[in-house]
Design brief:
There is one protein chain. The protein has helices at about 1-45, 110-115, 195, and strands spanning about 65-70, 70-75, 90-95, 100-110, 130-140, 140, 150-155, 160-170, 175-180, 185-190, 205-210. By secondary structure, the protein is an alpha+beta fold. A seven-stranded mixed β-sheet has the order 8-7-10-5-4-3-11. A two-stranded antiparallel sheet has the order 1-2. Strands 6-9 form a two-stranded antiparallel ribbon.
C-alpha cells in the first residue's frame, strides 16, 4: 500500500511539472507575441501609418503625410498601387501646343491642404505632382518646412501660362520662395523634373478631370 502511495505521488508530481513547463512556455509565447505587436506598432508610428483608416474632417486630422479622403485618413494618391481613371492630370504645352510633359495630380485646394502640402513625404513619383489651387491670382510664397525631398515649384497664372519656376528647392528650410508674377496655381514636382522635360516660362498648361471652377481660363 505504501509503495502504491509513493507511485501515485510521483505521477502527480510529474503531471504538475508538465503543467508548470507548459505555463512557462505559454508565458514566453505571449511575451514574444506582445513584443512583435509592439514592434509593428512602433514601425507604423515611425512610418506615419498609425492613422490609416481613422476618421477625419480635414487633412490636418491625419498624421504625417496621410491624406483625408471621404472622411478617412488614407495613403496619398501618388503612393497608391494604381491610378484611377478619373485622376486629375496636367499637361505642359510648348510652342505650337506641342506636348512637353504630363503629370498626375494631387490637388491642394483648401487652406489646410495648402498648409500641409507635401510635408513628411520621402518620395514623389516622376509622373506625379501636387497642384495648389487658389481662388484667384496673387503673389505666392512657399517654404520647405518639414519637407524632406527637393522640389521644383512652378507658378502658373489663371490663363494657364507658366510665369515663373524654381528648381531643386532645398528641403527642410524656412526661406520664402516667391513667384515673380501673379499666379493662381503652383505645381510642385520632384526636384529636377522641370529641367528633364525642358520647361520654359511661357509654356502653357491644360487640366483634365478638374472641376470647372478650378480649371484654367485661357
Amino acid at each position: 500500500m505504501a509503495m502504491l502511495k509513493i507511485y501515485f505521488s510521483r505521477v502527480i508530481l510529474g503531471l504538475l511539472g508538465v503543467l508548470l513547463v507548459a505555463q512557462v512556455v505559454a508565458c514566453k509565447s505571449d511575451d514574444a507575441m506582445s513584443a512583435v505587436t509592439q514592434a509593428d506598432i512602433g514601425a507604423q508610428k515611425a512610418s506615419g501609418l498609425n492613422g490609416l483608416g481613422e476618421s477625419c474632417v480635414t487633412v490636418k486630422d491625419c498624421p504625417s503625410y496621410l491624406s483625408c479622403e471621404n472622411e478617412v485618413c488614407a495613403m496619398p494618391p501618388s503612393l497608391k498601387d494604381s491610378v484611377p481613371e478619373n485622376t486629375p492630370t496636367l499637361q505642359f504645352l510648348g510652342p505650337q501646343s506641342a506636348p512637353v510633359g504630363t503629370f498626375y495630380l494631387e490637388l491642394a485646394i483648401s487652406p489646410d491642404e495648402h498648409e500641409k502640402g507635401l510635408m513628411y513625404r520621402r518620395e514623389l513619383p516622376d509622373d506625379w505632382g501636387m497642384l495648389f489651387i487658389y481662388p484667384d491670382e496673387g503673389m505666392r510664397s512657399f517654404w520647405m518646412q518639414n519637407t524632406y525631398i527637393p522640389l521644383d515649384m512652378i507658378f502658373i497664372d489663371a490663363r494657364g501660362e507658366v510665369v515663373h519656376f524654381l528648381e531643386e528647392v532645398e528641403p527642410l528650410t524656412r526661406t520664402p520662395r516667391r513667384s515673380e508674377r501673379y499666379a493662381r496655381y503652383v505645381l510642385e514636382l520632384r526636384g529636377g523634373r522641370a529641367a528633364e522635360i525642358g520647361l520654359k516660362v511661357g509654356h502653357r498648361v491644360t487640366l483634365n478631370h478638374v472641376d470647372d471652377k478650378h480649371d484654367v481660363k485661357p
